[in-house]
Amino acid sequence: MPELEGMFGPEVEEETPTRRDFFTQIGVGACAVAAVASGIVTLDYLEPKVLFEPPTTYVAGSPLDFAPGVVVPNQEKKAFVIGGANGIYALSAVCTHLGCITRYKSDESAIACPCHGSRFDLEGNVTHGPAPRPLPWLDVSQDANGNLVVDTGIVIAHGKVFRP
Amino acid sequence: MTVGEWVRNTSVYRSVIRHGIAPTNRNRSLIIFENLFLHVHPVKVREKTLRFTHTFWLGGITLATTIILVATGILLMFYYHPSVPQAYRDMKELQYVVDNGVFLRNLHRWAAHLMVFSAFLHMLRVFYHRAYRPPRQFNWVVGVVLLLLTLLLSYTGYLLPWDQLAFWGVSVGTNMAKQAPLVGERVRFFLLGGNIVSENALLRFYVLHCVVLPVALLLLISVHIWRVRKDGGVQGPPDDERRTP
């Protein structure tokens, strides 16, 4: 590290590093490594490894309950399970604007956000701003008893319905 | 001999404040120089800089609110547990059960609002008086960081009552952080200590609000006031309006 040499006095001429220079560089280098490493270790420490958060999956009921047009909101899990014309799908109820929980308006067949007035159709498409993106479609599967299981932690492609 | 003179001649007093009470300029300077708390302040100030209209005392008002906030905040901490089942109840207990609790809580709240407002006005005042110009350009940057810390303190304190306002305020705010490119998701995860606004988020915001941010704030306030002295005292309105472009 030649740029360090000027720090310890005027540079006379190019010389082979003395033993003192060598050990100074080792010391400064070791301190730098320790500083960077302690930064990384602290960041790692601050990242929780076990989360005591509620499970992201829930049982939504039998597929037979979801005839086309049926919308079942789940306030706690923040999701809608909807019977569509081609099959069953689940929508996140978390508004894509700033994260408020949207409500299903049965009289208008629409999903609306109480915070800033965003509106969505039953496929999650934005029909009125300020929401920037459609509501995400969530993973739907069946458990051993044949009941629908929604995983709010897994976002699937828009339009991918579940056919039991 | 008055009581004051007697006190100032005791060996205990002289061990703390070594110089005598002779009213010389040198002694007056020493009183400032040799005191940890006063030495950040200029030894001499022009009389006109003390006038209200010179600075509108906005920095001083902001500092005063900071002192109020530290004092009331420490007192509030004696009753507040940063946990999900307790936080909201403790806030209600402070308001309805603890003697003078509602006074301290409201004092903390209003001082916080005033601090943001007076820091903002202070910044405007400095800008319009051109006090951000060299040699004070570094202190302007320190001031910008102080404003940022003030806003972060307001924001982290907002979650602590754990009511609907707090929960949704922080839900919305951390979703804004999520929109930052590349690091947004990670920043949100680290701020909340998880994916949802829950126990970890409350504890993290509490530690930030009560330890990390106040320590940073007090350190930078010291630098800020010390730099006012080193940069030649407070800059009020420019001396001659006609000569300045």
What does this structure look like?
- The complex is a heterodimer of chains A (164) and B (245).
- Chain A is an alpha+beta fold.
- Chain A has two domains: 2-46; 57-156, Rieske [2Fe-2S] iron-sulphur domain (Rieske Iron-sulfur Protein, 3-layer Sandwich).
- Chain A is 17% helix and 27% strand.
- Chain A has one helix at residues 19-46; strands at 57-61, 71-74, 79-83, 88-92, 103-105, 110-112, 119-120, 126-128, 137-142, 148-156.
- In chain A, the strands form two sheets. A six-stranded antiparallel sheet of chain A has the order 1-10-9-4-3-2, with no helix packed on it.
- In chain A, a hairpin with a 4-residue loop joins strand 5 and strand 6 (110-112).
- The longest helix of chain A is centred in the N-terminal third of the chain and has 28 residues, at 19-46.
- Chain A is elongated, with a radius of gyration of 29 Å.
- The N and C termini of chain A lie far apart (67 Å).
- The model of chain A has no long low-confidence stretch (mean pLDDT 87).
- Chain B has a single domain (56-230), classed as Cytochrome Bc1 Complex, Chain C (Up-down Bundle).
- Chain B is globular, with a radius of gyration of 23 Å.
- Chain B has eleven helices and no strands.
- In chain B, 68% of the residues lie in helices and 0% in strands.
- Chain B starts with a helix and ends in a 15-residue tail after the last helix.
- Chain B is mainly alpha-helical and 245 residues long.
- Chain A binds chain B through residues 46-48, 51-53, 98-100, 115, and chain B through 168, 171-172, 175-176, 189-190, 193-196, 198-200.
